[in-house]
## 1
Amino acid sequence: MSETPETPTHDPNIKHMADDINIPVLVVSVLVTTFLVLAFIFGVQAFYYHYEEQQRLEKSVKAEYRDSVSKLNEQELRLNPTQPMWVDKEKGKVAIKIDRAMEIVVDELQESDEQ
C-alpha cells in the first residue's frame, strides 16, 4: 500500500492572481509616482527660486542702506563738522557747525539792532 501524494486539482474558474499582471493598477501606480516626482521637482525648484530672490533683495537692500548711511554721514559731516575747516581759504569761507553758525548770526543781528 503505497500512498501517493495527492496532486492539487486546479479549478479552471479560479484566477491565479499571483501569476497575472494587473495592468490598471500598474498604470495608476506609474502615473501617481510620476505626478509625485514632478510635484517634488517643481516644489524644490520654486523654493530655490524664492530663496534666491529673497537673498538678492536682501543684499540689494543692505547695499542701498549702506550707501544711504555713508551718504548721510558724509552730508552730516559737511553740515556739522567736528571742527572748523576751510571751505575756500582765498575767500575766507569756513565750515562750522550749524548750531554755532546760528548763534553767530543771532549775535550779529542783535549787535546790528543795538546800533
## 2
Amino acid sequence: MTDFYTLWTDQGLTKFGDATLAVPFNLTTAVVGDGNGNNVIPNKGQAELVNQVWDGPIASKVRSKTDPNTIVFEFVIPVTDGPFDINEVGLKDDTGELCIVGNWPLTHKPVAANGATRDMVMRVPVHFENADVVSLVVDPNVVTATKAELNAHALLQLDPTSSNEEKTKHLSDAQGKFLFDHADADAPHVGHETPAGAQEKINTAIAALVDSSPGTLDTLNELAAALGDDPNFATTVMDLIATKLNTAEYTAADVMAKLKTVDGPGCGLDADLLDSYHVSSLLISDYLHSDNGYVKLPTGLIIQWGYDAALPGGSQVVFPIAFPGSIFSFTCGDNGSDCYSHGAGNLTNAGFLFFTSHTSIEYA
C-alpha cells in the first residue's frame, strides 16, 4: 500500500450499498484536518477526522483517466481561509456523515498575513468496485476550474471544428456546462449590459449628441472643417472682433467725420474712385473762365470754347490757347436767331477759318 491513500468508512460502505434510485448516495462536502500535528493512519471505523480544521463544498467529480473505477473529487480551499496544516482529508455525504477518509502529505495553507497566499486545489481519488453505477452530480454553483484547465479549454475553443466532447475533455461535465453556459449568455456578469442593450445605449447617446444637426455638420470632422480646423477658433474670433469699431462708442456721424479727415489720394477708399478713375484725375489743373476760355484736366485733356456775336464770314478764328496735340472733336454753330449755315475750314491746332453760306472760301 502507498503511504497516502483513502478508504471507505463503515457507514460509507453501508450507505453506498443501500443506495437506490429512490435513495441516492451523494458525497457533497470535503473536510480537512491537521491530525493534531501527528501523522494519521486512516481506518474504516472513523466517524470524524482526528482534528478537523476546514470544510467546504465539493467542486467537481470526474472519472480518473488511468483507472475507470476511480473517481477524483476536487475541492478548493479559498485564499482567505487559514492558516492551518493539512495531513488528513475526508468526504461527507449530504447528511453530514464521514464516508471517505484518507491521509495527506503534510501541507501548510497560508494566508496573506503569513507573507504568502493562494487558493489551494485538492483532489481526492476514491475507488469504486463498479464505478459505472455511480452518478456524478455536482452543484453548479460551486464549480471551479484551475488555470491550466481553463487555458486548455480556451486553446481547444480556438479550433471551430472541435467537438464539444473534445473541447471539454479536460473538464468535468459540470465544469464544461458552466463554461458553455457562461459563453452563451448575453450578459453573464451581474451589472454588465447585453450586446444588444449596450448597442442601444450607444445609439441613443449618438442621437442625443447629433440632435437635429444638418447632414453636413453631424460628424466631428465636418464640424472641425466648418471651423477652419482651427483649434483656437474662439480666440481667433475674439481677436477679429476686437479690431472692429464699438457701436456703443462710434455713431454713423462719428464714422463719416473720420472718413472726411482721411487724405483723399491716399485713403484707399472706394469713394476715391469714379468708374475706376481716381478723383485726382478729374480735378482741373488750369483754366480760363470767360466767353472765350478753356480748362485743362490732369490727364492732359483740353476743352476750349469761344463766342462772337458779329463774326463775319471768312474770319480767321484763333483758339484761346493752341492745342499741343491732335484735336479730338470740333463743333461750330449758330447761337442766334438767324438760320445761317456755319462751317469751318483750315482747322489747325491754333485755330480755324469761319464761314457762312454767304461766304466764298478759297483754299490754297
